Amino acid sequence: MFGKRLVFRGMPAILTMAFGQFISIIGSNMTGIGFSIWAFQVTGRATALALIGIGYYVPQIVLSPIAGVLVDRWSRKRVMLLSDTAPALFTVGLIFLYRASALQIWHVFVAVAGIGACNAFQGPAFESSISLMVPKEKYARANGLVAMARNGSGIFGPMLAGALYGFLGLSGILAVDIGTFMFAAITLLLVRIPRPAPTETGADTGASLLQQALFGIRYIFREPSLRALMGIYFIAIVALNFSAVVLNPMILARTGNNALLFGSFQTAASIGAVLGGAILAAWGGPKRNRIGKLLMFISLIGVGYMVMGAGRGFIGWAIGGFAAAFFVSITAGINQSIWQSKVPADIQGRVMAARFTLANWGRPIIMVIAAPLADYVLEPAMRTSSLFAKLFGPVVGTGTGTGMAAMLFISALAVAIVGLSGFGVRSLRQIDERLPDLDHATLEEVRGEATD
Q: Which of 19, 24, 254, 329 has the maximum number of C-beta atoms within 10 A of its C-beta?
């Protein structure tokens, strides 16, 4: 369709895909900021933002195991094309409702749930494609480039949302988002993604769809090192979720709902994430003791969030957000490259989907708990002479939003402790000895055969 010279393979193909994601996520970030501002203006509570987050994550968590099976069965390129175009339909519906002055929180919840269902397919398809496109020594570099593109869009998305929200309104921002979805789909047409070579492990995954859907979870749990790595990540994500739920409403509450400062904070964090991805891409990730460095970076994520919780103004929040996002980007890339190098390519869709489900099944529960806890318990507690206020007032200050800041600080401290605790897990430290790296680059890819 495009001619041989316009079809990319290997690292150029990853760069092309990443650029499509860069443009698409600019639109998604603008929409996310726009909805955060709109929902907080309408309700004034963190609970509304948490409900939107629940609507996004629950379908992904529920559908991911089945999506992983289909990703391994189908063309991964076509799965990504579908998952990039289908969300535009939900966004169109929101535009009509908003322009008709009929948009309500539950409408956003339903649309976000549909987009989350699409992302249940897009995530494992994208992640499991990287290991088929470049040799194992380039996994971390490729993940760093993807992190740069995904997070780089966050630099422009918040700035554009903050600047254009008052000019275009929510419907204008949604229209831009639709265009960016389409752009990401077009870039996928320009790349070749190899099909994975079959393995004995992949052939013995069960006959029924349910058995295959559960295979990724069984695979992780039967490998002690992968089970330990999954466990550390799950605990860290649970703690981080308490921070994530209250972070945006905390900034909005403490800035008087200032869209420009809110967008500027998001931009500072995105710059940190881009720089982290750039360093990982240039560095190529650790060659030795990957787990030790991974655990250290997890702890440093916690430190960054602690700085945000203790921050009394934009400078403190920006420094903490920059640092946390910087280490998140590096940590995610290293973690991703470990899984890509340990898991056979023809089952990576199922295993990557299982990873998402296992890591995030607690996220909706945390959202249900954390937002009301902040709104109805910690915020009022910080306005009294309670023991809680006496303990954390000197750390986070006083006034509106400090209950959420205290929650952020406590959960961030837990993340730092979790990272350090991983050094005591023997099976985790010995992952490279227990599970040697695999190289999924195939002769078929070199010849340009067996590709989508």
A: 329
Tokens of 208: 């029924």
pTM: 0.79
- Residue 201's contacts (CB-CB under 8 Å, 6 or more residues apart) are 219, 344, 346, 347
Structural domain that includes position 391 = 6-197+211-442
Cβ atoms within 10 Å of 438's Cβ, excluding its own: 14
**What is the Cα–Cα distance from 207 to 149, expressed in whole angstroms?**
38
Cβ(169)–Cβ(61) below 8 Å: no
C-alpha span between 28 and 34 (Å, rounded): 10
Q: Which residues contact 121 (CB under 8 A, 6 or more apart)?
A: 63, 67, 70, 71, 79, 80, 82, 83
Q: The tokens of 412 are what?
A: 């961030």
Which tokens go with 336? 């991703």
Three-state DSSP string of 396-433 = HCCCCCHHHHHHHHHHHHHHHHHHHHHHHCHHHHCHHH
Give the CATH number for residue 291: 1.20.1250.20
Q: Provide the greatest CA pair distance for the chain.
A: 72
Instruction: List, in order, residues 6 or more apart from 45 with CB less than 8 Å away.
Output: 249, 371, 375
d(CA 276, CA 115): 27
* pLDDT, tens digit (0-9, with 9 covering 90-100), for 382-434: 888 788 888 888 888 777 888 888 889 999 999 999 999 999 999 998 898 88
Determine the pLDDT at residue 416: 95
Q: How many domains would you assign to the chain?
A: 1
pLDDT band for 100, please (50, 70, 90 cuts): confident
In 44-138, which ranges are continuous DSSP H helix?
Answer: 46-73, 76-85, 87-99, 105-133
Query: In 3D, which of 326, 383, 19 has the Cα closest to residue 188?
Result: 19
pLDDT at 444: 41
Q: Determine the Cα–Cα distance for residues 419 and 396; give it in Å rounded to an integer.
A: 23
Q: Which residues pair with 191 in a beta bridge?
A: 8
Q: Is residue 19 part of a domain?
A: yes
Residue with tokens 């203790």: 310
62 occurs within a structural domain:
yes
Is residue 449 assigned to a domain? no
Phi first, then psi, for residue 75 (nearest 5°) are -70, 125
Provide φ and ψ at 189, rounded to 5°: -65, -15
